Amino acid sequence: MHTQPKDFKDWYSNQGEALLSVLKHRFDEHMFRHQGHSWPTIQKRLEDQPEKLWSLQQMEDTGGEPDMVGLDSETGEILFFDCSPESPKGRRSVCYDREGLESRKSYPPENSAQDMAQAMGVSLLTEAQYRYLQQFGPLDAKTSSWLDTQQSVRKLGGALFGDYRYGRVFIYHNGAQSYYSARGFRAALLV
C-alpha cells in the first residue's frame, strides 16, 4: 500500500492545484501523445480521484515528467506514464524487488524498484507499455528502466529492463539483485 501523507487534504489544497497546472502545461506542450483527448475531461477525472494526484506528484518529484498517453484498452481508464527523456533520476540505482535487494551479499542499494513503486501508488511499466511509450521517444538513450517482469522469469532470478540504442528498443534481462547508476524505472498510473 502506498504511503499518502496523513494530512492529505492539506496537501491537496496546497499542492493539488499547482500540480494540475504543471500537468496541463505538459499536456498542452505534447499533444502528439494524446491526440483526440481534452484536458477538461482529464482534469475532472483527477479531481474526482485526488489520491491519484498524490501519486502523480511522486512521479513528478522523482523526475518522471508524467503525462497522459492514452486510455487503457480494457478499463477505459486514463494512462499516465513517465515521459522523461531518461529513466527518472530520483529512481535510479535500485535493484528490481525486495527479494533481489535482500539477496545482495555486499553493497546493497537503498531501495528496490518494486518497493518504491508500491510506496508511490504506481506500477512499473510492462514490456508492452514500454514499447508503446517508445513511439513518443526515443527514451532511455543513455539510461535503462526496469520493467514489470513475469513470475516465470522472476522465479529463475532474473528481471527485465529496456532501453533505446542503435535506433531501436531493446528488452534485456539481468539478475534482479543488480543495480546501476543509470538504471531506474518508469511508472504507470491508471486514473
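(ticket continues) Second input and output from the same batch:
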Amino acid sequence: MYLPKLFQIEDAALLGAFIRKYPFATVVGILNGQSEINHLPLMLSEDGTRLHGHIAKTNPIAQIASQGQPELTAIFHGPHGYITPSWYPSKKETGKVVPTWNYAVAHAHGQLKLINDSAWLLDHVSTLTNLHEPTYQSSWKVSDAPEEYIQMMLNSIVGIEINVTRLTGKFKLSQNRPAEDYAGVVAHLEQSPDQILQEMLSYMSNQK
C-alpha cells in the first residue's frame, strides 16, 4: 500500500477499534501464483493479535493453508467520500485546487491457520451472531434453529485464524491541505446528512 507518512496510522488501539467497527474484510491471498480474493466478516481477538472467521470448506482460501507460507492480508474499509475543491478557501485565492477522495483503511497481514473443531465453530458463529443481532434490535440466537440443522451447517464450514504479524492503517483525511482548507472541509462535512460522511468526519476530528 502506498503510505505517505502523513497518512500513516500506527496506533494499535485505534486500529483495533477501527477493525471492530468495520469488521467486513476483503481477504487477499496467493494460490497457485494467482490472487485469491474473498469478502467475509472477521473478529479481532481482545489482545489484537489474531483475526477469526469462517469459510465454506470448498472456499479456495482453505487451500492456501496447505502452502509453505500461508499468508493472507485482510483489508478493512472505513468511511470514505469525494472531497470537492469548492470547499477550499484557497480556491478563491489561487484556483490551484483539484478534487480528492478521503478514506480510512486498515491492513492486517498474517499467517493463516484452519480450525476444524466443531465446538470452536459453534462458539465462533454464536459469538458473531450475538455481536451483530442487536444492530437490528433483534435477539435471534444460533440455538433458535434446530440442532440438526445447525450441525449440518457447521459441517460445511471451517474456521480460520490469521495470526497478525503486521497491522497498518492509512487515514487519508485532508491532513495534507493547509489549515484553512482543512477547516473548510470539516465545516461542509458538518452540514452533510450523509451518515458515511459523518463517520469520516469523526475520524478527521482526531487527525489534525
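Agent notes: The chain has a mean pLDDT of 94. The CA atoms of residues 170 and 208 lie 14 Å apart. Closing as not reproducible unless the customer responds.
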